[in-house]
Amino acid sequence: MSRAEAISDLRGHLDTLVAAVRGAISSLNSILLDQQRSGAYPYTPDPYRNTYIADALTQLEEKIPALSALENDILPIVTSIHKQCNSIAPIHHLPDEILVDIFHAIPSKPGYLRIANSILVSHVCERWRDLALGTGTLWSAIEFLDNQPYPIAKMCVSRSMGCGMDVVLKSSKGTTTSHNRHTIDLISAATIALPAADRWRELTLECTVPSEATQIITQFLAECQPDPPQLRSLCLYAYMHAVYIDADLEKALFSLSASTALTKLHFKRVRPPRTTSLFANLTQLILEDIIDFSTPVSRLRAILAACTQLHVLQLDKVCLGNEHISGSSDILFILPALVELSIDSCSEFVQKLITDYLITPALRTLRVGSNESAATDKSMTYFFERNNRVQTLGLRFISPRSHDVISALSGLSDVHSLTIGSNMHPAAYPDTTFLGGLLHSMPKLTELRVEGRVTLLELNAMKRFIETRVGVPGIAPLHELYFAFSLAHLSQQERERTWTWFEQKIGSGELVFGEVD
């Protein structure tokens, strides 16, 4: 046995010894307390009435001071050994700033508070605890999800020191249907974090009625007085059903826009407000699950026209009224700084607003998904032709089989990453028609992802696509390939042959070959 192994064994034995001593003292104290109680049960076997056991317990009772003294003597020694062993461990040679970066990089587990990892690392050793407690950014998230962790929230306010805070208030997990019950819980939770309102950087509100958001935003602005708020991100969600912004919430949002320059807005199941000043400084806008045919699509255009600094725009399941959009050139509008655009499962009028009338000279990342139709094919063709500097392209839920669309896609010469299909739906078009039209296009393409089940026919089309491009001058080879394919109908030999083929073609690149039953 090596010295390191012997010391490790010794540490384990000492830990066991200390735990055993503590356990013995605890058990003896419980026995003594039980003996003092009246009303014993004479009809059950009583070990205390056994003379030999009683004598043994008496002798052990006399040893309690000695056992306590033993624990007091051993514990400092054990602590010293642990401390010295920890100090010579390789990870303890890392600088504090590297350790803090590692602490921040630990992924959060689903369903757990984000600070759970901070609590965990603060209980590893003395150095880690001192470092964790002295790093305010590790405690900068206050979350109220399916419970009300008031003590933890107060601890985060204290330990975060002067750092900006991310506050999450959700009433979505409640079991009651009473709006008053939800309102009281949400407002009470917000009260815990309001003393640090001047440090709020991100606020996520998931409410059941507009009055909840109105009251919290109003209290937040009052708490920040006289200094302007530092809030930069607002995520406003509605639980279960859509929430319409009433006059009071509209007023609160207007006051918020007049007090702080928000850079991120995320509305989910909440109709966007009329106050366009709220959008003036945004760099990121997310509109999700907003189905409101009483709101005309011109409202969305007015909002986007106000977002002159927008870098990221995500529209997911946004369905607005079927207001007619004129084809005149005066309704064209530009987002000069937009580099990333995602539009998925939106109504035809919303999609046409984006594809027909939006100018995006800086666009580099595009993710689009819609229903297949002649109208959407024509709009997408026009959009691809206008935005031919895209580098990262994702095509979901659509089947661009028309020659015009494929021709427009083939003109995207800067694309290096292409994703087709969706994890939620079968891969619709990695077939001969689609991939065959791109055999000699997208010369910089090095990453191909096919999300969703791939059939044998589509698999063969992918093989032809990859094989044709190998060795062609001016066309980069694929370095990353991801797709899911059902191999249940193939023999073991055919599975291995398929895997080997793709592995050889990708070479030293990354191949992710997901099997779907």
TrEMBL record:
Residue stretches making up the F-box domain: 91-141
Recorded superkingdom: Eukaryota
Xref: InterPro entries: F-box-like_dom_sf (IPR036047), F-box_dom (IPR001810), LRR_dom_sf (IPR032675)
Pfam families recorded: F-box-like
Gene3D superfamilies: 1.20.1280.50, Ribonuclease Inhibitor (3.80.10.10)
Protein name: F-box domain-containing protein
